[in-house]
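Give me the fold.
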Amino acid sequence: MEQYRVRSDHHPAQRRLQRPPAPPAQRRPPAATGGAAVRPRPRPGGPGRLPRPRLTGLGGGLFACAAMVLAGGIDWLIFDVSLIAYGVLFLPVAAVTALWVRPADLITAPVSVPIAFAVGVWPIAGGSGGIGGQVMGVVTALSLHAGWLYAGTLVAALIALARRAVRSSRRRIRMARRVPAQG
């Protein structure tokens, strides 16, 4: 029977999993608060904040595709196949995809967003006459509404670039604090 090695407590992956115990709630003396105990402050990830999932590159692409198929369905039901409404729904999907992808996979956001646009436009493209007609409908919809496609791709690219710049500046600041100034 094989024996598996167990990571020690000093391994970096093990340290990330272990969190220090939360400090007990600090209380003021009863005289300072009029006899009532002070409540601890709410955590930053409280109910008022948006979720911050960390999607992989593939997960971000699948999320964008699913969201755009849903947007195409909503457009078909409510707006009776308005490609302008579909384009307006595409912009927030592009932004959210670029915000929710992991920092290591930032480059995939501007690549997967146009693919999601094409996947979602398929049901509302209006082609007829078999597969060839459907493909022509998609190509026509993509060419006539390329402005929305470019705008959403630009939104995703700008958000990814901004996140990358913030990440690299934080890394530089962290490295500057570690290395003492020579001189």
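Helices lie at 12-17, 30-33, 57-78, 83-100, 109-121, 130-144, 146-178.
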